[in-house]
Amino acid sequence: MMGRRRGVGVGDERGHDPEAAREAALRLLERTQRTRADLARRLREKGYTQAVASEVIERLAAVGLVDDAEYARAFLAARWGRRAAGWRRLEQELRRRGVTSDDIGRARARFTEEQGGADEVRLARRVVAQAARRYAALDPRVRRQRLYALLVRRGFDGDTIEQALREPTEATEP
């Protein structure tokens, strides 16, 4: 086949070879940190059986080369504050990448501890401040509705949104 490099054919004996699968997984991990789900999917795409992929991933996890909680913590560190988004949205993105709720919870706790707290209200206020000019000419009731909808789309929960809209936006400066 032309388009497949280093791939393993579906009926190929190598599809059952744990050492070849381990090498393929290590090559994938050289490029970037990956979740268990992503690594399993990529190994299956390369033609390795589910059993072989699972065995390899367990071995790599045992030595710390695959760690979904660490992946999630690094993801949160990279995304937090860059483009203001609430916990809900960040957690959804991690779940889409195959990270379990338990791993997300551990990552969030570790990330929050490293940051000395993670002020979601401050992020929501930053979004409000950024949108203030765009919505300045609107009726106050309509402006509040639009800001509320914007914050929901960004993944902020209702309590956080209420706090952000209730408290003055001038307090957004660090």
Folded structure, characterized:
There is one protein chain. This protein is mainly α. It has three domains: 13-62; 68-115; 120-172, Arc Repressor Mutant, subunit A. 65% of the residues lie in helices and 0% in strands. It contains nine helices and no strands. The longest helix has 16 residues, at 120-135. The protein is elongated and about 70 Å long.
Task: Describe the secondary-structure layout.
Blueprint (H helix, E strand, L loop, with lengths): L17 H14 L4 H10 L4 H13 L5 H12 L7 H10 L4 H15 L4 H16 L4 H14 L4 H9 L8
Helix pairs in contact: 1-3, 2-3, 4-6, 7-8, 7-9, 8-9
Distance between the termini: 57 Å
The number of helical elements comes to 9
Helix content class: 55-70%
Q: Which secondary-structure class do the elements indicate?
A: mainly alpha
Please trace the helix and strand order, writing H or E for each element.
HHHHHHHHH
Shape: elongated
Number of domains: 3
Number of strands: 0
Radius of gyration equals: 22 Å
How much is the average pLDDT?
84
Low-confidence segments, given as residue ranges, are 1-11, 169-174
Highest-level CATH class of the largest domain: Mainly Alpha
Q: Give the second-level CATH assignment, the architecture of the largest domain.
A: Orthogonal Bundle
Largest sheet: none
CATH topology of the largest domain: Arc Repressor Mutant, subunit A
Q: Strand-residue fraction? A: under 5%
Summary of the model, kept short:
By secondary structure, the protein is mainly alpha-helical. The protein has nine helices and no strands.
